[in-house]
Amino acid sequence: MKNEKKKNLNLHLLALLIFSTYYLSSLLLFNSIALNPRDNLEINQVYNHVISKIINGELQSHRVFLAGEFKWFYLDGIFYPLNVVHIILSDKQFFFFEEISNKIISYFSFYLFSKNFFNKKTYCILGAIFYTTLIMNISYPAPTIFQPLMPYLMYLAISKDQLKLKHMLVVFFIGLNSSLVIDYMAFPLMLIFGHFMRVQKNYKILFIVFILMSLGMIVSGTPLILSILEEPTHRIVMMEKVTLLKTVILEFKNFYEFFIPNNIYKIFYFPTNLLKLIILIYSFYLIKEKKINLFLLFIFLTYLLKILLLSDLSQIYFNDFFSLLRGFNFHRVSNILPLFFAILLVAILKINKNIMLRNTFTTLIIIS
Q: What is the model's pTM?
């Protein structure tokens, strides 16, 4: 028993070491940590800096924007409880605290879920590394704790017969630190997926998780609600109407650029994207497996929903009063795709008997 625990600990330490190689190699090559500035330094950290000042007592700090016309409730994340960390951390320290903690939470969150569902610890660790890589590639760092903790919510939804008070409080806390705009569209799809993954159907658990998360998101989304009531133009995206055909073409163009990148930094995403492609191709080889079928179906439906919600077909519903809903960016339903791909990877590793293919998966996971 002790040897088993020691082996698991060593595997977790090895996984965390793999994540740390990014920082170590960056420091070795540049004597600094290289960052992708898009959103991270241009938007997120600017808002976090202002929120930090407000948390520390400078209540009028938000007036630095728009010559003082910027209202406090335009700071969408100002009600997140995790903002209290700003009291003790500087802007730079908060950035790396948020990034590193999201990586660690993502890793252990997926590991807990997949260990319960697949019961293959080594494969679950590989899946957890891959899941963390995927969500950090989408948004760096993750804008809220919802995606890092999505596998934990799935774990509660499919493995528990009843929720204890501590579980309910954790779910509500996750909701308080999540975004209606960024996260909510992926949340119902996650619950529907969880329903099909449960051996014994338990609508009560799914309903409780849905209510607690929704309430938490509504509370933390109060600034968004106030901004809509006060200034209808805030958070309303005046979207260019894009035909369904053009949306499909753009999706294929994005897929093409996974492998023929048009920017040099995208070269570093190649191992991850290649692994996703191999997962999809090999999944069709295992199409007779019931679980593989389920995972593939949800991936296909998610891509289909994303395309439909990006196209002008969705805009016919967002007119007049409902035009306020345009700012929700419903195509963010695709934020659940990293979870589907990581689950599919672990399922393939568990079924696959080909050692060469398994080693290929492992190599690409570590490189990515």
A: 0.86
